Amino acid sequence: MSYPPSTLIHWLLAAAPIAVVLVLMVVFRWGGAKAGPVGWFVALILAATVFRSGVDLLAYAQLEAVFLTLYVLYIIWMALVLFRVVERAGAIGVIGQGIIRLTADRVLQLLILAWVFSAFLQGVAGFGVPIAVVAPLLIGLGFDPVIAVAGTAIGHSWSVTFGDMASSFNALIAATGMDGRVLAPWSGILLGFTCFGCGLAVVHAFGRWQALRQGLPAIALVGGSMALTQHLLAISGLWNLAGFVAGMVGLAAAALVTRLPQYRRAAGAARSGAENGPMTLWLAVLPYLILVVLVAAAELWSPLHQALNQVHLTAPFPQVETGYGWVTAERMGKKTSLFGHPGALLAYASAIAFAVYRWRGLLQRADLPKILRGTVRSAIPSSIGIASMVGMATMMDRAGMTYTLARGLSSAVGQLFPLASPYIGLLGAFMTGSNTNSNVVFAPLQKATAELALLNVLIILAAQTAGGSLGSMLAPAKVIVGCSTAGLEGQEGKVMRLTVPYGLIITGAVGLITWLVARG
User: Taking a C-beta distance cutoff of 8 angstroms, is the pair 415, 455 a contact?
Assistant: First the structure.
């Protein structure tokens, strides 16, 4: 097989679609729904001309991108439906108030809301929901608005990869074509490390070293429970549950931590509060308990698993070749199970939750169209961005552009590449506002570079998604969402001045771990 050209000019042109998206989103502040299609169009022109891709190759690349996009968006749309159901019923507010009543200790309140509760919300919704929901709760407790937004942006970022029914991790699987069980162990380890890093950063941003000493026991105990839970579920093949179950376990661990001697007095002072009326705390978390049962049963009970996964959407794609002789072998499109996919399980949980809440008088039939309209408004812009970037990444891969980029990177940095690997993931999330997009765009590049440099591919891909998770605390798109609900419109710079140093430091630590492992 021949290879695409690897001259400096070809490397720069191969990087052009990514650079265009970066400039449009960061410099001109375009959203992914506008910048993504432009990046796709630039990739199309370059693939067809400079990299000599024929019409058949470009067409098959886009058809293949459709299957990959469907796999990811099925999760995202249904996760948003479930969130809208529980939000409309008032469950999110009840969960938040229940957490607030646990303790009056300021450091512990910040940790529970900005670090633990935000991770739980990331597990069930994502797309800026944790910042939008938690920041106003913290402001209501008297926290400075900048700390409220920055603390939540930092605190939730460790849970992004396995949050939202592991949509980012599923995108990593789809983009690389690798088995999730192979990718999960190192991803779980690095993200467990970032869990502690984010907890420490939240407290340090609030009260520097004095607050850090006060919060250290809680960070150690709660962080250990969340990191371990996420890792164990991920390596067991239940990565779709790993994020929000880790958040649920973290909430339970935090409730126990409030009983420690150094927190007990504050906890006692906070347990009074108004009743929640017909929406009890158990009723509020019931949809998520239902989802846990559904996912566990669908994955672990073989008869149900087989019954749900009998109908799939996929298609074969023939071998294609560029004018340079770069060959993409025949392969199947990403397989999506219509009734056993995580998105389908989310839909079942949403339907059951809606029925329960309607039975209890918390929702009415008229709420359903409002829930669906809210889902569409939230999902369409991000879906356009994801679809266009998936199309761009698939086209670049088949045209040999990704290989050209990887070859140039491996030649330039060689064995030092692991140090930069998480920063590449962070850059992708920063410019697109999404770890899912970062994995789609950069995971094939990271994989190809690691293979060419003879590095451990698994740790490099784990660093990619860990960096992409951490990039959520820096992404302007996420920060803008938080500032809009916290009354800080136009003051996003104040928040990012807090989040950027912590994000770069934690990412650097991930890079160091990656380098030590990859070189061994």
Answer: yes
CB-neighbour burial class of residue 509 (10 A; exposed 0-12, middle 13-18, buried 19+): middle
CB-CB contact of 198 with 157 (8 Å) = yes
CA 139, CA 28: separation in Å to the nearest integer?
A: 30
Return the bridge partners of 313, or none.
336
CA distance 340 to 298: 7
For residue 60, give the 3-state DSSP assignment.
Answer: helix
CB 381 within 8 A of CB 114: no
> How much is the CA Rg of the chain, to the nearest whole Å?
22
Integer Cα distance of 443 and 40 in angstroms: 17
Tokens of 293: 């049962």
Neighbours of 169 (CB within 10 A): 30
Q: From CA 294, how far away is CA 307, in angstroms rounded? A: 14
Does the pTM surpass 0.90? The reply is: no
Name residue 174's amino acid. A
Average pLDDT value for the chain: 87
Q: Which residues contact 230 (CB under 8 A, 6 or more apart)?
A: 159, 162, 188, 191, 192, 195, 242, 243, 245, 246
- SS3 of residue 313 by DSSP: strand
- pLDDT tens digit string along 444-471? 889 988 988 889 999 999 999 999 999 9
Q: Which residue has the tokens 């008088």?
A: 361
What band does 431 get if pLDDT is binned at 50, 70 and 90?
low
Residue bearing the bigger pLDDT, 488 or 188: 188
Query: Rounded to whole angstroms, how far apart are CA atoms 510 and 466?
Result: 8
- Amino acid residing at 271: R
In tens, the pLDDT along 102-122 reads 888 899 999 999 999 899 888
**Rounded distance between C-alpha atoms, residue 154 and residue 382, angstroms:** 21
CA pair distance 131, 134, nearest whole angstrom:
5
CB 325 within 8 A of CB 4: no
> What single letter denotes the amino acid at residue 178?
M
Nearest to 72, CA basis, from 82, 60, 80: 80
Contacts of 308 (CB under 8 A, 6+ apart): 298, 337, 339, 340, 344
CA distance 468 to 112: 23
pLDDT grade for 272, boundaries at 50, 70 and 90: very low
Count of residues in the chain = 520
Query: What is the predicted pLDDT for the residue at 432?
Result: 64
Cβ 308 vs Cβ 344: under 8 Å: yes
The DSSP bridge partners found for residue 168 are none
